[in-house]
Amino acid sequence: MLVANLVVETLPGKARAVAERMEQIRGMGRLSADGDHRVTGTWTVPDGDTVEGLSEVLQALNPEILCVYPAMVGEDDS
Question: What are the chain's domains?
Answer without folding.
Answer: 2-75 (3.30.70.920)
